[in-house]
Design goal:
Helix content is about 35%, strand content about 10%. It is an alpha+beta fold. The chain has 1 helix and 2 strands.
Length: about 60
């Protein structure tokens, strides 16, 4: 059995019978964790210089 976790993302953990399955499960768990955090307005950790806590900026339509 393989286990994986992402320490900066509290509660993101996965278990599977192969390493590949564990990676896939961990990726899926992280995705769900991020989506739920965004929906609930939680502060998310910056991962690999990706900061999902910033408010999106909108460009005027005439720039397209």
């Amino acid at each position: 059995t393989f286990a994986g976790r992402i320490p900066v993302c509290k509660g993101v953990i996965a278990f599977a019978s192969t390493l590949r399955e564990c990676e896939d499960e961990l990726r899926s768990t992280l995705e769900d964790w991020i989506l739920l955090g965004l929906k609930l307005g939680h502060s998310l950790p910056v991962i690999d210089n990706i900061d999902l806590n910033k408010e999106p900026t909108l460009e005027p339509m005439d720039t397209l």
